[in-house]
Amino acid sequence: LVICMVTLLQSASPNVDARESSIVTNVPDEESAQLQYNTTITSSATAVAVSTLPDVKIPDPFDTNIANISEPFENGRDIPYFFHIPRAAGSTVKDILGRCAYVRLAWNATATMEGIKHARETQLVQSGQVDVITTQYLHEGATLFDGEQHRGRCFTLIRHPIERAVSLFHYLPIARHEPTYDPQLRYISVEMWARS
Fold it and tell me: Fewest CB atoms less than 10 Å from the CB: which of 2, 18, 34, 172?
């Protein structure tokens, strides 16, 4: 969490040193609301508080079509929306949901931009034919929900970026079904691929 917050601070303010940032954490529970504290990672003379960051507006369609994480889940209105990040166990999640939990997944229908457009035109979410929407296209997939009667309840799995890149390197030379299939990767090292 601290690393994510420092990264967020760095992207919002490029002058922040990753080794020293002041991160303010608010605990929303009424009884523990007084447990506000600062965590400081020290090593440099620069410190930035979260309150100094500019206000960030959540972009459309997320501000209307995706449920806020602080709001309770509403059966019948909220539909799980899985953002599948490639090489981050997304296929495993889909297998567990589909084969073990017997959940009706929309993943072939939302695997491409054309599929998402078709799903939007045929009102896939509103039809009640699926229990979970999955896609690798986060923003476009969010347009499938109307925000009023059907909101997406977004979730994902995250993998360390270097582990994910190495996994992709080993996957691409064997995945003949993928559009990014590249048999030439069998003949180079991961270091050569990373530098290319």
Answer: 34
